[in-house]
Predict the structure.
Amino acid sequence: MKICFFKPNSLVDGGGGEKWIINVAKELSNYHKITIITFNYFQTKRLSYKDLITLFRDKGIKYLELPSFRIPRGFPLPIPSALRMLQNEFNSCDVVYVVLPASPNEILFYFIRSRFKTKFIAGFHEFLSYDILLHKLYYPTFVRSLKAFDAYHVLNRFVFSWIQKRMPNKNIFFIPNGIDTTKFQLCNNPSESRFFNILFTGRLVQSKGADILLKIIHYFNNNLRFRDVTFTITGTGPLEREVKKLASMHNNVIYLGFLPEQDLPEIYRKAHLFLIPSRSEGLPLRLLEAQACGLPVIGSRIPGISDVVINLKTGRLVEPGDVKSFAEAIKDYYLLWSQDPAQYYEMNKAIRNYIVKHYDWSIIIRQLELMFESIVNQ
């Protein structure tokens, strides 16, 4: 098959959607011809452009960054010459996978759909936030634009139900994110550690709950006051200044800033607990990475997180923004770690085994390949 992936921002942004494309394209390129098209726009350069080009060249993947122009809100749009290139590239492939939301590009595709002769799949890696006014206003237009697609790929149960209600006669594929479980290995035995290390890694933005994280740490340190507990934070974003301020106030808060991908497995292995207080998610890659290393997770009870975390077994689900409940859940895991490290380590192993069984890339890639084949052969 000839498969094209489209995202309206450069892969050097290095977020979850970008990494998903890189990993899936790399795996599928062993058997299929892969093209990736983006625009020459990025917000935060987390990945090396040179490394990406080397990887794609070695795997025989065609990667194009087309010229575009910015608009006041949303992603950029292609300039006229780039739109012609986009049309030619799309029509040379059997199927095109578009990562959504890509506003306002989905509207563009809706109005010029007749120019494209190939099949289109909409991939929902994020979702509109109803508490953001612009998203709420855009919602009816977004729903209408989805009619331009032949099939839909979703990462969690909530979006699957949402699509079913609005596109009842279309192909909908519920295939979660995947993880390389050979890269992310079991965490260290807790009996070898002097400190209980709590980890947050991700973009320091409100959608990821970075502001909630700050409140959790303040509450925990001011009310529970365990001396052998540390908080490790990695990532960059608009709330970086507040995180640095927090680290300067508390001796048990360590801010590492941005870390390259190759450093993350060791960071997970040295942790004992993973926090993910997000307000919205698709199906977070960081969550899978942490659990592949055996870390229990305390996360918001929202779609995406609740699809992976089994409450009271592989982690704890807490109502979004409930700072006290997050802190109390941390306390419970701390007490288990300090009082019975052997049982804690058995839990670590059980969590990893669950992720290997359900989310290893070898399983997920095959499901995605079958999705592409079924759409192409219709």
